[in-house]
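User: Can you predict the 3D structure for this chain?
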Amino acid sequence: MNILQIPTGAIQENCYLVSDEQHLLIIDPGAEAEKIIGVIGKNDAKPVAILLTHTHYDHIGAVDQLRDHYQIPVYVSPLEDAWLSDPQMNLSGLGRHDDMDDVFIRPADHLFELKAYDIAGLRFEVVATPGHSIGSVSFVFPDFVVSGDALFRGSIGRTDLPTGNLEQLLTSIRTQLFTLPNEFPVYPGHGAATTIEREKRYNPFFNN
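Assistant: Here is the predicted structure, written as C-alpha cells:
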C-alpha cells in the first residue's frame, strides 16, 4: 500500500492519497481540488472514497468537487457530519481570514463506525482520537497511521477550538496511537511525517 502527501491551501493542510495498484482513497482533501485531481491523474489507481479525519474547513474544502468529479462517497464521523455545512463549527465562518468564503459541504454518504473497513481491498481501522475536535478519528492502515490533527511531529493538535479538550486529546494519543508498533509511520494533518517511537521519546507533551 502506498501513501502520498499533497499539501493544500493557505495553511498547507496535508491531503493524502492511499492506494494499491488498482484503487485509491482520498483522505482530507482540504483545498486545491484541481491540484489533487492532477496528481491522481498520474496514478493508475481509481479513486473509490473520500475519508475525513475531522471537518475543520482546511480538511474539507475540496470534498464536493472531488466527490462530484469521481462520483465517489464521503465518510465522516457521525459526531461531525452536521459540521460540514456549518461554517461556525467547521471554522470557516469565524472571521479568521477576511478573504475566506464560508465553507458549505453536502452531508457525507456514510458515517464511520469504530471498526475495521475494507473498501475495494484497501483495509484500515477507524479509531476515535477526540480532543482536537469531538469527532476526530485516525485511520490505522496495516503499516502506518493517518492521525489528522491529533498527533504531529513534535506537537499535538490545538485544543482551544470548539469541542477541543487537552486531557481528552492526550488520552486519545496514549490509548489509540501510542499502542501501535513503535516503527509505525505517522502521517499528520500538517507538517512532516514522524513515527510512533519518535513521538513517545521526544514529543514535549509526553516528556515533561
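DSSP finds five helices and 14 strands in the chain. The chain has a mean pLDDT of 96.
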